[in-house]
Amino acid sequence: MVTLAAIFPPSQPPERLGAVAAAAESAGLEQLWVWEDCFAESGIATAAAILAATSRVTVGIGLLPVPLRNVALTAMEIATLSRLFPGRLTAGVGHGVLDWMGQVGARAESPMTLLREYTAALYALLHGETVTTHGRYVHLDDVTLAWPPAEVPPLLVGGIRPRTVSLAGELGDGVIIPGGISPAEVRTSVGHLNGQRSAGRDPADVVVFISAPADGPAAAIAATVIEYAAAGATHVAVNAAEDDADVERFAGFLAREVGPLVR
């Protein structure tokens, strides 16, 4: 069964987080997604605020841009949240918007090399391993987390193109597919993803972001969610299409009106 989620986008002011989280929790929504945009809101900080304000809702960070963050710091932050709120976090990493990375002097010449090195190191650190690696971009010397998560959260990779999706299947626990991608393209991506899964590993998560009008209709949104689920999505996170949408009301609408049509 597909998990239905709402998105709290970084275009929304952070002071609205508490009300949106409370609305999602009271309405019975399973999941909220946030992400890290330059120069808006921190993915870690927004996830922490939602987790602290709720007791049941799970939170996905989709995604943290790897050129912007040292991998050890990202591992420390994810591990801290996972120990404080076990079983309620999913973390995603990705290339980030390359122009923004250029603005802060962090643009990599080879984004794929950076993402591969970073994902491998982050996965190992979160699983309690001691990591020494000297790649093109990621350099760690005998690094071990003092407080690795007792329950390791899923680590997903954001991507669309075959190389990135294949990397997500090889090194991560799944993929985050951004908005504007058709169900047919999702089905193709799922093929690349699963083609890289080693025998015995858990099935990969496939998170798809979509946009929908904040005023529905519920049946149309549910039909779209079901279509993506049929293409292989395990989670569908819905963003209100309007920039000025009332995300608090929208989260409740998804839970109460769209959710029953999806189950």
Structure notes:
The structure is a single chain. The chain is globular. It has helices at 17-27, 43-53, 71-84, 98-103, 111-126, 162-171, 183-195, 218-230, 247-262; strands at 3-7, 31-34, 58-65, 89-94, 131-134, 139-143, 155-158, 174-177, 205-212, 235-240. The chain has 9 helices and 10 strands. It is an alpha/beta fold and 263 residues long. It has one domain (3-262): Alpha-Beta Barrel (TIM Barrel). The chain is 42% helix and 21% strand.
CATH superfamily: Luciferase-like domain
CATH topology: TIM Barrel
In which order are the strands of the major sheet placed? 1-2-3-4-7-8-9-10
CATH class: Alpha Beta
The helix content, as a percent range, equals 40-55%
Q: What count of structural domains?
A: 1
The total beta strand count reads 10
Mean pLDDT: 95
Helix/strand-derived class?
alpha/beta
Return Rg in Å.
18 Å
Taken as a percent bin, the fraction of beta residues is: 15-25%
CATH architecture: Alpha-Beta Barrel
- In whole angstroms, the N-to-C terminal distance is 7 Å
Number of helices: 9
Shape: globular
Short description, anyone?
The protein has about 260 residues and is α/β, with parallel strands linked by helices.
